[in-house]
Structure formats: structure tokens, C-alpha cells
Design a protein that fits this description.
The protein is α+β, with helices and mostly antiparallel strands and 277 residues long. It has two domains: 196 residues, no CATH class; 36 residues, no CATH class. 43% of the residues lie in helices and 17% in strands. The strands form two sheets. It has a six-stranded antiparallel β-sheet with strand order 2-1-3-4-5-6, with helices on both faces. A two-stranded parallel sheet has the order 7-8. Helix 1 packs across helix 3. It is elongated and about 85 Å long.
Length: 277
């Protein structure tokens, strides 16, 4: 065989390319299940960290299987809610939204299109909602956990694709930034925004925290993502936060219409409760 002619070169190159492609495809397929498991465990660990079940490092230490098992043991329901606050689906078992799923929902929020936002409800009464948006150099995303009143923030966790280490990257790497969220509230009555990340300091505002020094654009990006998603979740949160889910034994009838949000402010509920006592 003449190895110097063009035909040989073309055939040889084609065979090598086909073999390499076949090997890469085999390796990719072989690793697919592991990659999917890693991605699922990572997403679940972020949700659990936001909900204050443990630090992020804990989930890395115990591994994928234990992390996923903890989630399935403690989740009450993983619902999907639409723009009207209605339940439009459910994530069963250990299924959670991926980052790419959140990206799609972010487009839906932006375009006022049909959406299905994840709403994770845990057995201890804590709920977690997702956020997604744009940082300085790329996408940012994360989770905000709410206590049983669906107003008080239990915790938060954020991640990013390419923010600057030591600056914007602190949304993920600096526990002090995330710790600011705990105990703060989401205030839908605030005309400016339900929640704020404030450059120069939030002061004593109950629904605001301090921005990251030297990371103005990343802080603004996270702030915008939080508020865009909080507003999208607002109907679902109001629907879930009926006053009679708290201390009242029976609903006065107005809660279902969204006219009553706090048991202590609902005279009819208090009257009914007192009469029954």
C-alpha cells in the first residue's frame, strides 16, 4: 500500500476521527449518570444549605447519596407554581430544578410567559424558593429559605459562573454575606422592592442587607434577581400564607380571598377562636 498518496491520507484520517469520536461518545455516555448525580446532589445541597439544614461543606463531606437521601427524608412537597400562584406541577422524589431549568424560568419571568417556578416545602415548615439572574461576568443563581410565615428569611445560598474571586465571588464564598439574610424579612408592601442589597449599608431596614464592598455590579445583579423572582413568586406566597394556617382553628372565610394575612390582625378569626374557647 502506498502510504504517500492522498487517498491513503484521507482514509487514514477518517478512520482515526471515527475511532476517536466513538471513544469520546462511549466515555461521555458512561459518565453521564455520574454527572447527572453530581449535578442533582449539588443543586440539592444548595437548597439544604439555604434552608439551614447544614453548611455547604457538610454535604460535600457526606457525599451524593447521603445528601439526596436527607433531602427526600425531609421534603414535604416540591411544587411548581405559575404566575397566578396556582400549583401547576410537582417534582417527585429527589427531582429538583437544575441551573438550566432556572435559566429557562428566568426567561419566562422576563418575557411574562408561562412559568413553572419551584417551591420547596420542608417538613419542619421551612420553604425554599429559587432565584436566577445576571452578575457582572455571567449568571448568578441561588435559593432563599423562608420560615413558616413565608416572610421571615431563614437563610440563603448563592452560586455563580464567573464572578471575580474575592469580590463578586463572595456571594458564594463569604459566609458573612449569606448570614446577613437570616432574620430579615421580605416586605411586599415596600414600594421600592420587597428586598434590597444596599451599597453603603442597609442600616436598620428589616428587608435589606449590606452590599459586598468592591462588587457593586454583582451585588446589583443579585439584588435584581432576588426581586424579579420574589415578585414572580408573590401570588404563590400570598396564596400559601393564609392567616388561618397559623394560630386560628377555623378560617373566617376572608383569608381564602387574600384579604387577611395575619391572625393577630384578623378580628373575625380571633372572635371565632375566643367563642370556641
Amino acid at each position: 500500500m502506498n502510504t504517500n498518496n492522498n487517498v491513503y491520507t484521507v482514509v487514514y484520517t477518517t478512520v482515526v476521527c471515527v475511532l476517536v469520536a466513538a471513544i469520546l461518545a462511549f466515555v461521555s455516555q458512561s459518565l453521564k449518570a455520574k454527572q447527572e448525580a453530581n449535578e442533582k446532589a449539588e443543586n440539592i445541597s444548595q437548597i439544604l444549605t439555604a434552608a439551614q439544614f447544614g453548611e455547604k461543606s457538610h454535604w460535600s463531606e457526606i457525599g451524593n447519596d447521603a445528601t439526596i437521601a436527607f433531602y427526600t427524608e425531609n421534603i414535604e412537597a416540591a411544587l411548581l407554581v405559575n404566575a397566578k400562584g396556582e400549583i401547576c406541577g410537582e417534582l417527585e422524589g429527589d427531582n429538583v430544578y437544575s441551573v438550566s431549568d432556572l435559566k429557562k424560568q428566568n426567561y419566562a419571568i422576563r418575557d411574562n410567559a408561562e412559568m413553572a417556578l419551584p417551591f420547596y416545602i420542608f417538613k419542619n415548615g421551612t420553604s425554599a424558593i429559587a432565584i436566577y439572574g445576571a452578575g457582572l461576568w455571567g449568571p448568578v443563581w441561588g435559593y432563599i429559605a423562608l420560615e413558616g410565615d413565608l416572610k421571615t428569611i431563614a437563610g440563603a445560598y448563592f452560586d455563580h459562573e464567573s464572578e471575580t474571586p474575592g469580590l463578586g465571588g463572595k456571594i458564594k464564598d463569604d459566609p458573612a454575606f449569606r448570614a446577613q439574610f437570616s432574620g430579615k424579612v421580605v416586605d411586599y408592601a415596600d414600594e421600592a422592592a420587597p428586598f434590597a442589597i444596599v451599597k453603603g449599608g442597609a442600616g436598620d431596614k428589616a428587608n435589606a442587607i449590606d452590599a459586598i464592598t468592591g462588587a457593586t455590579m454583582t451585588s446589583k445583579g443579585v439584588d435584581a434577581a432576588i426581586n424579579n423572582w420574589l415578585k414572580a413568586y408573590e401570588p404563590a406566597i400570598f396564596a400559601a400564607a393564609s392567616c388561618c394556617s397559623g394560630n386560628c382553628e377555623e378560617c373566617c372565610g376572608e383569608c381564602a380571598e387574600g384579604e387577611c394575612t395575619e391572625c393577630t390582625e384578623c378580628a373575625e378569626c380571633e372572635t371565632k377562636a375566643n367563642e370556641e374557647e
